[in-house]
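yo

u said u wanted the structure for the complex thing, so here. seqs first:
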Amino acid sequence: MLHIKCPHCGMRSQNEFSYGGDASVKRPELGKDVSDQDWNNFVYNRKSLRGKHWELWQHLSGCRQWIKVERDTGSHEIFKTLKAEEEIS
Amino acid sequence: MQKYSVFSLIKNALSNHENWDLAWKDPAPKKEYDVVIIGGGGHGLATAYYLAKEHNITNVAIIEKGWIGGGNVGRNTTIIRSNYMYDENALFSEFGMNLWRKMSQDLNYNVMFSPRGIINLAHSDAQMNVYARRGNSMRLNGIDAVLLNREQVKEIIPMADFSENVRFPIFGGLMQPSAGTARHDAVAWGYARQADSMGVDIIQNCEVIGFDISAGKVNGIRTSRGEIKAKKIGLCVAGSTNILAEKLNMTLPIETHLLQACVSEPVKPVLDNVVTFGAGHFYISQSDKGEMVMGGDLDGYNSYAQRGNLPTLQHVLTEGIAMMPFLSKLKMLRTWGGIMDMSMDGSPIIDKTHIEGLYLNCGWCYGGFKATPASGWTFAHTIAQDRVHELNAGYSLNRFNTGHLLDEKGLGTKTWIS
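structre next:
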């Protein structure tokens, strides 16, 4: 089982969390021209590589906050967690 | 090639089975091939077989990092069906059903195809309506479908929970009587043996390191066993598609996810069919050895680990016990996990790419095994003719750009959306 350290609540089990996908995907800015390709990249296209991966999780059965988690997709090791508004360094 | 028959069996029994031919050779890679297929799983082997058989292209290599049949083709729950509503999925899968029905004869290899029927259980009036609609759509496409009421389901699977006071009572179900199972290893070995006999080189323990591409055309690949030239290259590497796509500077509408399955200890025959739970994601059948073969949801996060976590297994088996309470008495024999290409609309991709001579076969989600023959057949056509066949025209890569999604279940990589 994964153990995820919620930046708000501390270490909790995977059961309390729901997965939200790649955290590095950026929504095209509002009010700017957006090409079909930009939307396609935002909505559908993902790198999904083996190794370190920044991803979104929601602490659904806890504080209900969205958080960012850096996890290895090969070993499931978790390196770092951030609040949703914190930038990935 | 040595033909397998009762006579060859008797003949070889007399010599203590010491004189059987090798089922396929172990060649070193040549410098150049007409077509290189990357991935020696079911789809790759079937593609090579149909390239040779249907298109007379035999100067073909299959490049496999591990060994034949060592990936998802030997790791699935062996369900074969075509109970789809959308035309694209229904016609493609039913074409595959016809290939399944004659596969053992075609390949001269007993794939133990067992058309035992699949029942999708319904747990509400609304779900019965949805199933009636899907069943009608299937019948319009020439696929057998029978809508069963509660009493009829009870006749077929009396061991399911038909008590009144349950959270998800069984209202009825949709059955495809011609669906079933097959022995997955035999499918891989049968295709490998026939492809090999027609001149295809099956090259195992050979990892693809990079691609040789110039002016938008492929010239070949670099592998751990040297460079191989080829004008046409087909990718059939479900689970590792994203890794090879990165080497091609492509970003695909696919996430790689982990899917678990498990089998119980063997018990006497109790379940004749494949049955799926309608209020969640759980499916079950009984193997010829008596094990209950079960599976369900993805673990739900990107993973290449090929190793599942217990919360998902517990979730899936809770559904199983809700459906068939006797399962709680069984001991678990084995659990395992494999990695899937989860496409964003839940449907696969079999298409050309923007790189000339590079063809893509990926995104099989939960349903790769049943598609093996149809996928190989259409992918071979796409490669040989350099154009998609009408059967796989709906499985285009461009559909995500144009909005022509094939969202049969409205379910992509996110299990929690359902």
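Chain A has a mean pLDDT of 95. Residues 36-43 of chain A form the longest helix (8 residues).
cya
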